[in-house]
Amino acid sequence: MKILITGTTGYIAKRLIPKLLDDKHELVCCVRDLNRIPEDLKEKENIEFLEIDFLKIKGIQIPSDIDVGYYLIHSMSTSSSNFEELEYACALNFKNLLETTNCNQVIYLSGIVNDQSLSKHLKSRFRVEETLQSETYNLTTFRAGIIVGSGSASFEIIRDLVEKLPVMVAPKWLNTKTQPIAIRDVLSYLTEAIGKIELYNRSFDIFGPEVLTYKQILLQFAEVRKLKRWILTLPILSPKLSSYWLYFVTSTSFKLAASLVDSMKVEVIGKPSDINTLIAVKPISYKEAVEKAFIKIEQNFILSSWKDAMISGVFNSKFSKHINLPQYGCFKDIRSKRVIDESFTLNQIWRIGGDTGWYRFNFLWRVRGFVDKLFGGVGLRRGRRHQTELTSGDALDFWRVLLADKNEKRLLLYAEMKLPGEAWLEFKIIKDTLYQRAFFRPKGILGRMYWYSVLPFHGFVFKGMLNALVEDNKSSL
I need a surface site. Which of 141, 192, 315, 472 has the fewest CB within 10 A? Predict the structure, then answer.
């Protein structure tokens, strides 16, 4: 079948696409920016990419011979205050485009809807479901609760809490009940639903076999990791304080933390249906889902991460507008060093950040990350998706990967930290020389003051990093 995919660079789609390709489907993947096509998909057969922003579809055409469409767009962590209207507009535009094709089925992944009380985001997801209903194609909706898998937002946040805090003084919403589901089971529902007439124009809650409180989820995670943890819940922590608690302890952004707290206050338990009869899926337990996630992590096989989504609010335009370093109005720190072993240097560049660190004066990078957190930035806690692989769009500590091309011997990063301006960091090998370039385009007087305040540190931080990338010496301070 010919299948249209939205949310191509998102957590779910990055895992769904390989499965659909294995099943010999022909895919049309929608991306807002062609520069963000995942590297491992560029050379695949039976896949084409269409640049489209579903908020701006004027003049856009999609293939008319589409059989099935996946709607995987959401704005859980958007920095916009009117995310509900943005979600509605995206859904309506998607529907209008699909109705011009031969599409027979749309499959939508939503959230479990509690009829008594809904968070703002679940209300928005339900509105999207209503918007997607059509007389020209059949809608199949799967409503999931917490999705557990390596790289998922819930998994990484829970991991942060459990592995960093032996004792937790937590908000009262930790006693809220929910039904987590493994990512592998979600993907099974999504792929097995294709062309199933019994699922047309129906909605199904999908969930794991256990009803757990968030406290039980944390403690079971600790059991899998063989850690002893103690949790005390307090009724006095307000939603705002709870959001700050999540924000400072975990790698999440404040916007996402606030959205999660808003959702976690609501009990999310799925309604039974005949879905596991119609699709032969037997969901695995929460503990088993966590164990399987760590197997993937140990194998360095994390296909996607929520951290790679554009959640900082920094990017309001396409990657392509940032890939060429600006030549005017910038402060620059340009250094170069002769490369002794090109293969070694490239490997060093491609391992930078995350657990590897920044090779020299890592404590200063950590201080900068802490300061960024204090001012509402992303900090260093996002790390990186894979220890040795980088692709355009990846999160890398408080940077975003704009370009990662080993053939071109170039890595270009764009700062997502809180700054009074814009910053780029580039590594590029030309002939036998590594060029390391840091560019900063200040915004007003504050931007200029910022540059001169950090300038004294550049002499040893950037020089030390450059030396470590060229010399076979991995020590750090």
Answer: 472
Output the CA–CA distances (angstroms, integers) from residue 268 to 40, 79, 81, 114, 160, in the order listed.
36, 25, 24, 6, 23
Contact status, residue 372 vs residue 417, Cβ threshold 8 Å: yes
Q: How far apart are CA 427 and CA 473, in angstroms?
A: 18
Do the beta carbons of residue 138 and residue 102 sit within 8 Å?
A: no
Q: Which two tokens stand for residue 396?
A: 């890398």
Q: Which of 348, 312, 313 is nearest to 468 (CA)?
A: 348
CA–CA dist 332, 328 (Å, integer):
10
Degrees to nearest 5, angle at CA 17 with 65 and 302: 170
Q: What is the DSSP string of 148-214?
A: ESTT-HHHHHHHHHHHH-SEEEEEGGGG-EE--EEHHHHHHHHHHTTT-GGGTTEEEEE--S--EEH
Pairing of strands 421-430, 230-234: unpaired
Q: What is the pTM of this model?
A: 0.70
Task: Extract the tokens encoding 273.
Answer: 């249906």
CA–CA separation, 298 and 93 (whole Å): 41
The Cα angle at residue 360 between residues 438 and 402, in degrees rounded to 5: 35
CA neighbor of 176 nearest in space, from 95, 267, 249, 112: 267
Q: Could you tell me the domains of the chain?
A: 2-307 (3.40.50.720), 312-470 (3.30.530.20)
Kindly indicate the confidence band of residue 219, based on its pLDDT and cuts at 50, 70 and 90: very high
- Please write the tens of the pLDDT for every residue from 293-322: 888 766 544 455 444 554 444 445 554 455
| CA quadruple 384, 86, 180, 311: dihedral, nearest 10 | 20
Task: Return all residues near 101 (Cβ < 8 A) that are at least 6 apart.
Answer: 62, 63, 64, 65, 66
Task: Encode pLDDT of 36-64 as tens digits.
Answer: 777 667 778 889 999 888 888 787 888 99
Average pLDDT of the chain? 82
Burial class (CB in 10 A: 0-12, 13-18, 19+), 177: middle
Tokens coding 360: 């020299």
- Number of Cβ within 10 Å of residue 460's Cβ equals 13
